[in-house]
């Protein structure tokens, strides 16, 4: 169960952030509205919010998840793979220091984006991506091992259309994963029950299990229906403006 989430509203220059999408520029007022609805959904799911100050120096800084990996046994600050984002760590460090007496860190030349890290029980899948390199993944694996967690690597560099591992993978608990088609045959996920998201609904794979509810992107009826059939209670949230900037639901918070 989670009790808190770190969040940061998008800055006025959010549209200057990184993106590989060709969906047009995000509309700032709309992004703010969508972010507030997201925050309300976290609160509705029982979380107390830790709101970081908006930071225009870092237009991607609303995507707080990339900057830390938080586990029940300790927190690790990452070293984001995009140079324009490395400065985001200081603010998140300050916020997490209120809750964790010791914070580990990923060091140069290692890079990790939190979006590449998917916790499944006592195991962590670590995506090797354009943002997370082998050295960073190895450092994280060692830090996780010191907290008594296992981990394994999933190379997603050849998978088209996803920035991070969690762009195509979500953990629903009870050994059940949501995955995009392209990841569904990977040996790494054998032994799990897979809910495979169709190509048309690929963006919806980045859903987030928060206590009793699952936050899902609005506009993806197949996955929503499937989750309903499995008796999950979903909250559908408009994410269009964040999608334009290569962001998903999980990216917008650090939950612990
Ligand atoms: N815009 C999110 C990222 O590229 O890091």
Structure write-up:
The protein has helices spanning 28-44, 89-97, 134-146, 221-229, 240-243, and strands spanning 4-8, 48-52, 68-71, 74-77, 103-105, 117-120, 123-128, 150-155, 169-173, 176-180, 193-197, 208-210, 213-217, 233-237, 254-255. A hairpin with a 2-residue loop joins strand 9 (169-173) and strand 10 (176-180). It has a 3-stranded mixed sheet, sandwiched between helices. It contains 5 helices and 15 strands. With 256 residues, the chain is α/β, with parallel strands linked by helices. It has one domain: L-arginine/glycine Amidinotransferase, Chain A. The structure holds glycine. The site of glycine has 9 residues, from loops. Residues 17-19, 60, 63, 82, 245-247 line the site of glycine.
Which fold does the CATH topology refer to?
L-arginine/glycine Amidinotransferase, Chain A
Strand fraction: 25-35%
Q: So how many helices?
A: 5
- Overall number of domains: 1
Search tags:
3-stranded mixed beta sheet, 256 residues, L-arginine/glycine Amidinotransferase, Chain A, binds glycine
Nutshell version of this structure?
The chain has five helices and 15 strands.
What is the topology?
Layout lengths: L3 E5 L19 H17 L3 E5 L15 E4 L2 E4 L11 H9 L5 E3 L11 E4 L2 E6 L5 H13 L3 E6 L13 E5 L2 E5 L12 E5 L10 E3 L2 E5 L3 H9 L3 E5 L2 H4 L10 E2 L1
């Amino acid at each position: 169960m989670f009790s808190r989430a770190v969040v940061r509203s998008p800055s006025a220059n959010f549209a200057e952030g990184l993106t590989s999408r060709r969906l047009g520029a995000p509309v700032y007022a709309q992004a703010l509205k969508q972010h507030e609805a997201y925050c309300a959904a976290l609160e509705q799911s029982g979380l107390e919010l830790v709101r970081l100050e908006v930071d225009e120096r870092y237009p991607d800084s609303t995507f707080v998840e990339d900057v830390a990996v938080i586990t029940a046994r300790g927190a690790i600050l990452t070293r984001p793979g995009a140079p324009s984002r490395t400065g985001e760590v200081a603010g998140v460090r300050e916020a997490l220091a209120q809750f964790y007496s010791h914070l580990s860190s990923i060091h140069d030349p290692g890079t990790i984006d939190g979006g590449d890290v998917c916790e499944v029980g006592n195991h962590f899948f670590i995506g090797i991506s354009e943002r997370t390199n082998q050295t960073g993944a190895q450092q994280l694996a060692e830090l996780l091992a010191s907290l008594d967690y296992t981990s394994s690597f999933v190379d997603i560099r050849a998978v088209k259309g996803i920035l991070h591992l969690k762009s195509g993978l979500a953990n629903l608990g009870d050994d059940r994963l949501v995955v995009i088609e392209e990841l569904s045959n990977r040996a790494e996920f054998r032994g799990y029950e897979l809910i495979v998201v169709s190509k048309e609904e690929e963006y919806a794979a980045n859903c987030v299990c928060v206590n009793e509810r699952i936050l899902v992107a609005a506009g993806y009826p197949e996955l929503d229906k499937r989750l309903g059939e499995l008796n999950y209670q979903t909250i559908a949230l408009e994410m269009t403006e964040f999608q334009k900037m290569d962001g998903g639901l999980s990216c917008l918070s650090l939950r612990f």
